[in-house]
Queue: 3 jobs
Job 1
Amino acid sequence: MKKRTIWILGIVMGASFLILLFLQISYIEEMAKMRNEQFDESVKRALMSVSKDVEAEEMERWLREDLSSAEKNGWTDSQNRQSSQSYITAPDGSKIELRPFSGVQQDFPSGVVISRNHGARTIPQTSRTMADMLKNRYLYQKGLMEEVVWEMIYYASDRPLYERVNYVNLDQYLKSGLADNGINLTYHFKLVDADGRELYRCSDYTDEGSKNAYSQPLFLNDPPARISTLQVHFPGKSNYIFDSVSFMIPSVIFTVVLLVTFIFTIYTIFRQKKLTEMKNDFINNMTHEFKTPISTISLAAQMLNDPSVSKSPAMFQHVSGIINDETKRLRFQVEKVLQMSMFDRQKATLKMKEVDANELIYGVVNTFHLKVEKFGGEIETELDADNPFIFVDEMHITNVIFNLMDNAVKYRNPEVALRLKVRTWNESDRLLISIQDNGIGIKKEDLKKIFEKFYRVHTGNVHDVKGFGLGLAYVKKIITDHKGTIKAESELNEGTKFIISLPLVKDSDITN
């Protein structure tokens, strides 16, 4: 599958997951908002009901106290002023009192005549008299009621709140009103006057959640300056709203898990694709890497066939040494590939021994002269370390030096003659080795990644630089395993400098 196709699929699927996640979160927010509005509306209805209950209780108290006493006094006066009394006369001449408002039907003997103390009356006349008395009583009671209402309007607001409100009943009204509207949460309430002064608070009052308190005037008809306000808040409101929408949380979590899994899958696909490409590149370039020492050996072998070389023992020994060194290099290449396969799993096996670094580097430089001279370059050495002895694996350290010098040749500037400079010196109890070239250099963004496994610096449209992408990763690994450090300094189009720091040999290292 092409990389572009994978990107398109990844973007489409990723966008779909993100949109789905956005819709789910938006739905939860809308549900929470709607549930909050429903809660607010229910509380407002409950508080309005409480306000009416408190007003009704006050009205009942006024009627019970004022109307009963006024009615009692008024009814006594009416009885004293009454000038006649209704009664009936039985056939035997006895008189029976007429009770028109007793509410009990009276049975009269046959022949009974309804009469008054000033003379006899007919039944229709007596009925009219009773209706008039009932009407008069209604008008009297209505007048008393209006008088009580006027007294409440003018004088009720002057009373202290504790005389107007029964706080125990108020709590019951609140509890009942909230329950009737489907709210069974713990609540706290207090009463404040028009100036915000607190008049009363419930016994278990806390300030938690008081910033979102609901307010309701208790006596709406009071003057604005005397209105008392009931404030109620719910400490558990947030949890209540959250619980009402919490059933959607698992779906969001599953969506996030799917999104993360999808991202990881896409990442794995790209990584596998990259590894596949690296594998193919490895197979294609391995031949080149092996051809270099083979070509050098072949060139040296042809020189041995030259009669002038065979007549010169020194030249013959030099060429033979090149063949031997290139054979070692070939073996090193094979060993490098094998060692890299184990780097992710375990530490490389090192055969440690005391080595003279100056001598080791001189041998590598001497072997590498032929390759550098082939490109019209030269190698400058300054092996100035007074104490060059290090406790290392000779094969791997040799391969490290060879890799760094080989990189200098690979990434040389074709327009400038190659110049390599190799130095050694001491600092404190460490040996420092630097390999500097005048090649094409490395960009700053690439400089941080050059020691990563399989990473290769891009060379633009030039594709003649072969390699596994393992060389510098191998170098980093070997130096680290030797408890050393390596860093790179480079300027684009000016060259690169690698500095290696290794600990000097100690007596304890030799003993171990």
Job 2
Amino acid sequence: MPAEAALEARDISKTYGGRRALDRVGLRVERGEMVALIGPSGSGKSTLLRAVSGLVTVDAGPGRISVFGLTVQQDGRIAETVRQVRQRTGFIFQQFNLVGRLTLFSNVMIGALGRLPFWIGLFGAWPHEEKLKAMAALHRVGVSDYAGQRANTLSGGQQQRGAIARSLVQGAELLLADEPVASLDPVAARRVMDTLSSLNRDDGLTVVVTLHQVDYAMRYCRRIVALEAGRIVYDGPAKGLDRALLAKIYGPEFQEALFEEEDR
């Protein structure tokens, strides 16, 4: 019997007003894959990622989304098992989603709240073993030296790696990263992508990342899924994407999706 996929979306649609953000999309990602979702603005890639996490409810109908065999949503309704899914899923936002006045260490410790009593987080009475996990996670992503600094004093790249460390403390097996490098300079962006790639390659985490920068998608991900107007128009190896296909997918935005040579 084959192992359950890391995530599977079947026949899902999402409508905003009269616009179809997702149009009968199907996607299966196996455990241990690192997959990039690309496409122009409004193509549906962020909506798809948020639907997988249960942050967006899809339209009623035959559509179903599951993660590690547990239902996230079906027939336009969030399933009761979504809480179990979220314990195993880390979501990395474009704008880091850290509490600026708290230290980086405290932000990372928030990842442990799902398995600890509420009062422990309220009073900061973290168990010693949880503190060790947090520091190990910060070290794993290369920002342990900044553990005592307030998050809002750190660079964007440092904050984003802190957000990834929080997901490690949470115990995530699947990382969903929504434009995690969109607001970063090229050097910081590469460090974040190197971190995600290392966690996939060395730690076995499944990673699904939406990217506007096609160069990063092709450099870091073996498999690329391209969306256009809410539909998947390409799903295959990175080497299968050529300039003609990219120009067809992106249209006038094609050159904006590629870095200038000096940034490589």
Job 3
Amino acid sequence: MRFEEILVAPETPIIEAIRIIDKGSVQIALVAKEGNILVGTVTDGDVRRGILAGIALDEPVSRIMNAKPTVARANQSHREILKQMRSTEVLQIPVVNEVGKLVGVRFLKDLVAEVQFQTRVVLMAGGLGKRLSPLTDDCPKPMLKVGDKPILEHIVRGFIDCGFSRFSMILHYRGEMIVDYFGDGSSLGAGVEIDYFHEEAPLGTAGALALVKERLDESFFVMNADLLTKINFRQLLHFHQEQGAAATMCVHKQSTQIPFGVVNLDGHIIRGIEEKPITEYFVNAGVYVMEPEVLEHIGRHENLDMPDLFNRLIASKAKTAAFPVREEWLDVGRMEDFKRAQSLYVKN
């Protein structure tokens, strides 16, 4: 929508501003003086507060407008504007230049879609897959087929289905097979882009991010390329941004049953016996959302895994968050898990 469609002058009667607010779904009128200099905004809430205060609807809109509205600057990135809107809990935000002249208006629902579409997905696809030998003797683990597609294609299409299209793949073992299969990504759909980074030696699930550092200037996903999951990646990104976290880790609930009666002791005194107790705990699910500042904690050419990176972030007082995965999730790292994945995806 063009901002001119919701523009009123300070002397415009309140009733006219109401018509603009009610006309569509934008729920706001922008108040500007000559030269489109923003002087305020009017929402349905402002109108209702004016009515309660006894202000007549034929009085000028300047009587009820918010004279100090939240605004965005024309030089701010989509990511910065989205963060500002979330922190101030506004659904719309006028955009002004350096002298306060209106140049546009942004809406939260549209901006979320734009930011999500631009979010980069980093896929760690360089592992040797030794536990799946001999299947991986001549094929990288992410390219093993589950159902009719390689594991890595299931992952990529899962992100595409959620609206994400920019991918960076970290390669090492037989990486050329992955490049030959996916190419630049265009075969997967309009707008899909894939670029590749090669590890000369394994750098770990976090250390390899240093290779992609120049691409990571906004929130980004990281995912191990041997996972199958139905996570809603849009919800994950929204959760991460809502928490204001530097890094968010997906966690999956696991349970272990001890096959014996557990004896609770107080010295030599038995206080109780619990038969075959079940312990529940959360494990790292291998999917993350991060902010660019986390890269400052990774040394160049450093071999570093994600648990160690998170421990560094925690030690530095950076905010870290956990996103519990309630959807289907399977780590295809062992032969029994690979066989289970086959049975699941053949059924689906």
